[in-house]
Amino acid sequence: QKEVEQDPGPLSVPEGAIVSLNCTYSNSAFQYFMWYRQYSRKGPELLMYTYSSGNKEDGRFTAQVDKSSKYISLFIRDSQPSDSATYLCAMSAGNNDMRFGAGTRLTVKP
Amino acid sequence: SQTIHQWPATLVQPVGSPLSLECTVEGTSNPNLYWYRQAAGRGLQLLFYSVGIGQISSEVPQNLSASRPQDRQFILSSKKLLLSDSGFYLCAWSVLVRGGYTFGSGTRLTVV
């Protein structure tokens, strides 16, 4: 079993749709959870950073962490064509041990 | 503000040739530095990280090495490239060890 599992997609939605991206993990020591957005041929950029369980909202983006289920989610409201990218989940126990999911490729069609 | 520079953007090298990729960070002191490799359809694989000058930790034994000759400079090297070394190489930095890295723009390496 991989330490971090993420459905690679691809996921295609119409503009304005709500997008749900998810990851599961197996290491219960993970406490810090992140979502990165990566455009084609570019480096990933940090979108959301959360600690432990709970929700965090930033504009159209909401990150959820459920440590009891070892499950994290990223929701994108009112999706835009500019949101088309690969989204990577990442998590860490806090000691240079960050692990990434394989990434989900999202396309938002106008 | 902090910036990270990584070059070159693309590189095509023959099998058996040497490799040197450079990464520099501006606007911060004593950053944690990382080299990752990303293969198509796969997640990022941590290759090396460094918490200070001359301090290198290797995650996966392979045909690569890293060095940190200066506080904000991180170099990825190989003496003889293999076909399997092809991939997208990313440098990153952070102040904290718990994540939230800032990545460079990457180098796409093709070994032929």
Please give a structural write-up.
The complex is a heterodimer of chains A (110) and B (112). With 110 residues, chain A is an all-beta fold. Chain A is 0% helix and 55% strand. Chain A contains no helices and 11 strands. In chain A, strands 2, 4, 5, 9, 10 and 11 form a 6-stranded mixed beta sheet that branches. In chain A, strand 9 (85-92) and strand 10 form a beta hairpin. Chain A is globular and about 40 Å long. Chain B is mainly β and 112 residues long. Chain B has no helices and 11 strands. Chain B has strands at 3-7, 10-13, 19-26, 32-38, 44-52, 55-58, 65-70, 73-78, 87-94, 102-103, 107-111. In chain B, strand 7 (65-70) and strand 8 form a beta hairpin. Chain B starts with a strand and ends with a strand. Classes of the chains: A mainly beta (110), B mainly beta (112). The A-B interface holds A 4, 6, 8, 31-32, 34, 36, 41-46, 49, 88, 90-92, 94-96, 98-103 and B 6, 32, 34, 41-44, 46, 49, 51, 57, 90, 92, 97-106, 108.
What labels describe this entry?
heterodimer; A: 110 residues; mainly beta; 55% strand; globular; B: 112 residues; 7-stranded mixed β-sheet; 4-stranded antiparallel β-sheet; 57% strand
Instruction: State mean pLDDT of chain A (0 to 100 scale).
Output: 94
Q: Rough shape of chain B?
A: globular
Largest sheet of chain B: 7 strands, mixed
What is the N-to-C succession of helices and strands of chain B? EEEEEEEEEEE
What is the subunit arrangement here?
A: heterodimer
State the helix count of chain B: 0
Q: Kindly estimate the percentage of residues of chain B that lie in beta strands according to DSSP.
A: over 45%
> What distance lies between the first and last C-alpha atoms of chain B, to the nearest angstrom?
38 Å
> Which percent bin holds the helix content of chain A?
under 10%
Q: Please provide the ordered H/E string of secondary-structure elements of chain A.
A: EEEEEEEEEEE
Major β-sheet of chain A, in short?
6 strands, mixed
* Cα end-to-end separation of chain A: 37 Å
Structural class of chain A: mainly beta
By DSSP (H or I, 4+ residues per run), the number of helices of chain A equals 0
Radius of gyration of chain A from the CA trace? 13 Å
Proportion of residues in helical segments of chain B = under 10%
Low-confidence stretches of chain B: none
Taking Cα atoms only, what radius of gyration of chain B do you get, to the nearest Å? 13 Å
Proportion in β-strands of chain A: over 45%
Q: Would you count the extended β strands of chain A for me?
A: 11
